[in-house]
Amino acid sequence: MKKFFLFLLLILLMVPIVFVFYFTAKYGHETQKLIDFSVPMTTQIYDRNNQKIANIFRKEHRYYASFEEMPPRLIEAILAIEDTVFFEHPGINIDAIVRAIIKDVKAMALVEGASTITQQLIKNTLLTREKKFSRKLKEIVFSLKIERELSKEEILERYLNVIYLGHGYYGVATAAQGYFHKELKDLTLKEIAILVGLPKAPSFYAPTKNYELSLGRANRVIERMYTLGWIDSKMHLEAMAEMPIVYDETLTQNRAPYIVDEVIRRASEIYPDIRTGGYKIYTTIDLALQESGRKALAYAYDLAIKRAENANDLNKTMMKQLNGALVAIDPKAGEILALVGGVDYKKSSFNRATQASRQPGSAFKPFIFQVALDQGYSGATELVDIARTYDYTKNGEDVKWRPKNYEKDYKGLITLREALVHSRNLATINLVTDIGLGNMLKELKRYGIADLPHDLSLALGSITLSPLDLAKYYSSFANDGVQVKPILIRAIENRDDIWENETKSIRITTDQQAYLMTTILRDVVTRGTGRRAGVRGIEVAGKTGTTNKSIDAWFAGYSPTVETIVWFGNDDNTPMRRKETGGRVAGPAFRYFYQALIKKYPHIQRHFVKPNGVIEIKEGKYKEYFSDISKPPKIDTMANPDETLIF
Fold it and tell me: What is the dihedral of CA 385, 624, 510, 557, to 10 degrees?
């Protein structure tokens, strides 16, 4: 009989061991997810001054914190309220389990939890929340296994990074930033108590929802720490009395949606897991200038709509699809300072600054004239401004092309400077003819502009470019003859390494020849088609652009340190109102932006610097500039024998 009872006791002891081995053999591999730990983490985007632009994530908003980054008080607080004997048990608390089983048996249901932090971690990462004995058994077995595989510190680190703490925040580091705008190391005891009190019922105790209830729960945490002797009476009283400031913010904190979309698109090509990898992306953007760019577009848009409201019904409908874009860059470094893809992101997320391809019209003319300057022409060179008829064949049919000036007149002879200052179409076409279309196309290849038309429509800007593309090509004027490729992302950092961008540049012309162009484009603003873009207190240079029927309107220009491209047009490529030219609709946005620029940065360079090798001559009302390449006109100094000398 004694042997029978010993055998029965052995069987009873073996049953749980067999169950443990069975579950470990069948489901043990599932714990590998916790051992090789990886959770989705939020990527953060910053501007050039390290101001937060946005958070990007897929489902769970989480900043990750290592155990070393977690203050000791935080560890004490979570153990005090959740698992006081955490560092002593093997993953499960036997005493607590026995108490819970007794209550569950009495109620004939699972009513008592008794979970350790290890078990909570298992439940949050590996198991469902259904209340079944099989799930509970898995939880126990997995906890025992995890405790053998991981250190207590590793378990705490995982737990404090996966727990949900309300308001869409996952992990203590996320909640500390979100609720209190603080790093973990800077939290007060009361703030810590609020955080560690949340896992029990995060939606209910979230301080942005129920502040008083959250404080009450935090006070219970503090009382527990005091009872355990982990804080003294002074800390206890101070923490109980504190009323922390709590912030209620959106999760993304997106301050520049057009920037964020473009950053994600570009960064995804480098790191496909950019939304979940916990990267820090440092951009070239200046958030203050980004906001100025947004306001500048809205300002010019409102002016155009008001003009349309004062017109007849037909003209009103011609502005229904009106939108715009603005790009500002540092032409020396190629860094994008502002990039606004539309008037209102909420109405349209399409980024016209990078994705729209539109005709630049006369904003393309400076490239034609720069080629002329580089071939020895000067601002004083006389061009022919007369009408011509061009015969050519298109689709097997004879076609006549009779281009006109915008003013529908012609000057006969006009200097190269005045032709560009007043954007004379006929003089530009005749200039291309004089240089030779083939030669012109060959010289323009230096800029890297794709799909140039192989006909004289080239002179009128009949190509398609995005505003950002045009900014790239215009940088050669603004950057002393050197073209730079605009960059948006300076660096991408993760826990292991850092990717850094590099500025790419090519020299197009000399600084002297580029300065000659700057003096002409400066005149465009002071007395030509770009007068509405002028800004008091700072020199700017630029060019208007308006395509046939006012479908596209541009102002492309620069100050000594910042280059800006503005575009307006209807999204459906229909004409705007007839008088909505580049100077009229885009010029005011350009002016508004630079007014904001010098207000924000009053010590910015205000005047263009003339390089060595440029000669300045004043004849009559205006100045002219020459170089070793673009020489002054020859003056006949031979004495005329028939001329009467007066003494």
Answer: -70
pLDDT digits (tens, 9 = 90+) for 132-166: 666 678 888 898 999 999 999 999 999 999 999 99
For 223-246, how does the pLDDT look when each residue is reduced to its tens digit (9 = 90+)? 999 999 999 999 999 999 999 999
Q: Look up residue 131 and give its two tokens.
A: 């209340």
SS3 letters across 399-421: EEECCCCCCCCCCEEEEHHHHHH
Task: Report d(CA 640, CA 250) in Å as an integer.
Answer: 84
Q: Rounded distance, CA 318 to CA 93, Å?
A: 75
Q: Are 200 and 217 in contact (CB under 8 A)?
A: yes
* β-pair type (280-283, 43-46): parallel
Taking the CB of residue 270, how many other CB atoms lie within 10 A of it? 13
Domains within the chain, CATH numbers bracketed: 58-241 (1.10.3810.10), 287-379+457-626 (3.40.710.10)
The Cα-based distances of 20 to 17, 26, 263, 395, 482 in angstroms read 5, 10, 50, 83, 72
Identify the DSSP state of 249: -
Contact of 545 with 524, CB cutoff 8 Å: no
What CA–CA distance (Å, rounded) separates 247 from 175?
Answer: 10
**Alpha carbon of residue 523 to chain centroid:** 34
Task: Report the SS3 class of residue 382.
Answer: strand
